[in-house]
Design a protein that fits this description.
The chain is α/β, with parallel strands linked by helices and 268 residues long. The chain has two domains: 172 residues, Spore Coat Polysaccharide Biosynthesis Protein SpsA, Chain A; 86 residues, no CATH class. Helix content is 41%, strand content 20%. The strands form three sheets. The protein has a seven-stranded mixed beta sheet with strand order 3-2-1-4-9-6-12, sandwiched between helices. The protein has a four-stranded mixed beta sheet with strand order 5-13-7-8. Helix 5 crosses helix 7. The longest helix is centred in the C-terminal third of the chain and has 35 residues. It is globular and about 60 Å long.
Length: 268
């Protein structure tokens, strides 16, 4: 049975340290499309050298950029990975085998029961080890779908691939080489907490001292105890502390924005 052709999309910005590993891991695909938002390093040069198709698009946000990439792809079945991720040979074989079972004609019928998308776990490498607890693993993500039935959500952070129809599970993990060190994680958390508080503003969330005190503590308890981050040793403890800190900043920024607004009002 033949499989439908596959495009892989990767969005990038200054990813020269990661892009070679990512692109090499998906050269089995029928197309590798890199959509860049203004890299000043060798990201595009390295991607082209490996045979990837490269496009540029000014940064509109995570979900919007992924939707743009999805729209530019040559094929309907699209696997999206981040530049700091890698598709292992084992996962690539599982993906190809799963696609061989997809009936492309049936997928166009409303009554179809065949898969319109696939989700799989992601395993992250951090502080010299593979993290297996604390909410970081298995961390199931929907990353491959027929674009006729799928679109990325477009919040400021934590976009998701939404699929209209059956989404089936694959068992092998996508490999994630996240923060290069603790400082890298902290800087990323600063960005996400800023974007997260802006989402709270859009939802009309009011600042609250109670949330500022309880949300970070709850996040630490969730990741370190309930989700067993303690089983990852020192790395698990650092991850949980940083998760709590990121949560603290999100609600602290919300309070700061409210205080600044009050100051402006008082001056008027």
């Amino acid at each position: 049975m033949s499989r439908p052709p596959v495009s892989v999309t990767i969005i990038t910005l200054n990813e020269e340290k990661n892009i070679v590993r990512a692109v090499k891991s998906v050269l089995w695909a029928d197309e590798v499309l890199v959509v860049d938002s203004g890299s000043t390093d060798r990201t595009l040069e390295l991607a082209r050298a490996l045979g990837a198709k490269v496009m540029t698009n000014p940064w509109p946000g995570y979900g919007k950029q992924k939707n743009f990439a999805q729209a530019q792809a040559a094929h309907d079945w699209i696997l999206n990975i981040d530049a700091d991720e890698e598709v292992s040979p084992e996962l690539s074989q599982e993906i190809l085998a799963a696609l061989e079972g997809v009936d492309s004609k049936a997928s166009e019928r409303a009554e179809a029961t065949t898969a319109r998308g696939f989700y799989f776990p992601r395993k992250t490498y951090y502080l010299g080890k593979w993290i297996e607890h604390g909410g970081w693993y298995p961390n199931f993500l929907t990353r491959m779908a027929n674009r006729k039935f799928a679109r990325w959500s477009e919040p400021a952070v934590h976009e998701a691939l939404l699929v209209d129809g059956p989404v089936k599970k694959l068992s092998l993990p996508l490999l994630h080489y996240t923060f290069s060190n603790i400082q890298d994680q902290i800087l990323t958390n600063l960005k996400y907490s800023q974007e997260g508080y802006q989402e709270l503003l859009k939802k009309g969330q009011r600042p609250s001292l109670i949330r500022l005190l309880l949300k970070p503590a709850g996040k630490f308890i969730e990741t370190y105890f309930i989700k067993k981050g303690f089983m990852d040793g020192l790395a698990g403890f650092i991850i949980s502390i940083n998760a709590a800190h990121s949560m603290f900043l999100k609600y602290a920024y919300l309070i700061e924005a409210d205080l600044n607004h009050e100051r402006i009002d008082h001056r008027q």
